[in-house]
């Protein structure tokens, strides 16, 4: 198969979809790999690294799309890329369709096969291609939250871990999945007073067993959320429903109950956000203020640490890329349940219930594998 890796052009997205090591694994299996010139520069990989591994370099994004049968990316295509995508393409990337009708409709119109990293799912319901970036985003949420608690950033002027004689910051994490767990580890390690909420009591029992003493667990419901937000310094939204829009667990009217300078980090912003007043921001302009509350809602947080993120992501995606390239997408999807879960759009048909429900679109449980 011919695999093509275009350069990411989303604002401040520095990751790349395949490392030179990944190229080498594909080439030695008989596949052709094209990489757009400078695609890996943001992650620390130069064109010579790719050519040494057996890739061919394309001069621009148009050539990258034209050459490839399977297009492997990190982030969803942006407007400039829509018309470069054809019905002959298999697209393998993060899509987060449920947060964008425009993107969903564009990919339906282009009739491409769209396999989304974020909905590839094992039998135990774990999400192997979302986990590495969730780990990065969860840890970054605390790192960024701590920064924006500083007074020059319009925060409260609180040091997350405090100092002897001064209490540490209070951190509320809503969601006990991978993002929430990693955020709790980081916040606890910095010495903060942490509460992690989830609606799954089994998960809370597990977290209570593994977390240090400065992390407490609490059932997630509207009453408890309204009660706890009143005196928190950093609130992290870490809720995920695979393939679907995130529920709005913090509403606009709740902001009046928060203290001025409280920082909100919505890690679910890729899926529409779990905080009503959040809208996607960029690393270039990451925050804004609503009712005195600092909102940090960067939609590609791991893009700020591209070397770490690229290696973590490609460690997870490469086996699936090899399978799709070796067997062909139809056979791979038919034989591997996790890849069938990843199939969101197929030749103009919506095959993911979360995407269909988000926009009231027809849902094809078994799309035509044309």
From TrEMBL:
- Judged by the first EC level, this protein's enzyme class is oxidoreductase
EC number(s) in its UniProt entry?
1.4.1.1
**What residue stretches are annotated with the Alanine dehydrogenase/pyridine nucleotide transhydrogenase NAD(H)-binding domain?**
149-297
The protein's matches in InterPro entries, at most eight in alphabetical order, are given as: Ala_DH (IPR008141), Ala_DH/PNT_CS2 (IPR008143), AlaDH/PNT_N (IPR007886), AlaDH/PNT_NAD(H)-bd (IPR007698), NAD(P)-bd_dom_sf (IPR036291)
Q: Which domain of life is it from?
A: Bacteria
Q: Which PANTHER family match?
A: ALANINE DEHYDROGENASE
Write the protein's name: Alanine dehydrogenase
Q: Which organism is it from?
A: Agaribacillus aureus
Tell me the organism's taxonomic lineage. Bacteria, Pseudomonadati, Bacteroidota, Cytophagia, Cytophagales
Gene encoding the protein = ald
